[in-house]
């Protein structure tokens, strides 16, 4: 049987006529889960947010590491103007921290009252953190690389503090009235012994002086796991 092409013409062997162009549109692209995962991974938003969080909470990390390794404190006043500037920086840091986390589900799903508390609490927390950081910077600046010898001194006991959350029992002193108490760790048995009898007593410390007149004392840290050595208590 003869095979006929278009218009009744006989088709040549081994030759097929070109198909007419199709008018049907190609199927639309349907995004798959893999494409969404790729888009999410290439979105710089989450990484930018993580970077901001790391930067804004860096002062807290510095203070935590310093509390683990440092065994000294500054007990003399520092520059008041610089301290005020650091506090304002802390308030700004806390406000930015709130702006970064306020849309997170953990914050957004809370009640209005709790969100207000967090909004106020974050700047206040960072003010305290920057205040403490200012004292640490002053301590590092006055005694960084210092080879001054330590000597014995005696200061009145301001109060006793019971250790909790990893902190040890300690004696609080503020001999120069700077409003920033220094804590001298003591063993738990000595804390119990001093309860009710610390008023009017003094504690001996090891201190050294810088050329600027700043005084630094040994505190043996606050988060050291081993029990501290007992201190000597004298009458003031």
Question: Quick summary of this structure?
Answer:
The chain has 236 residues and is an alpha+beta fold. 42% of the residues lie in helices and 15% in strands.
What does this structure look like?
With 236 residues, the protein is an alpha+beta fold. 42% of the residues lie in helices and 15% in strands. It is built from seven helices and eight strands; from the N terminus they run αααβαααββββαβββ. The protein has helices spanning 33-42, 44-56, 58-69, 80-101, 105-108, 112-143, 188-194, and strands at 72-74, 151-156, 159-161, 170-173, 182-185, 201-209, 215-218, 233-235. Strands 1, 2, 6, 7 and 8 form a five-stranded antiparallel sheet that branches. Strands 3-4-5 form a three-stranded antiparallel sheet, with no helix packed on it. β6 and β7 form a beta hairpin. α2 packs antiparallel against α4 (80-101) and α4 (80-101) packs antiparallel against α6. It is elongated. 15% of the residues are buried. Residues 35-44 have low confidence and may be disordered.
Identify the notable features of this structure and list them briefly.
236 residues, alpha+beta, 5-stranded antiparallel sheet, 3-stranded antiparallel sheet, 7 helices
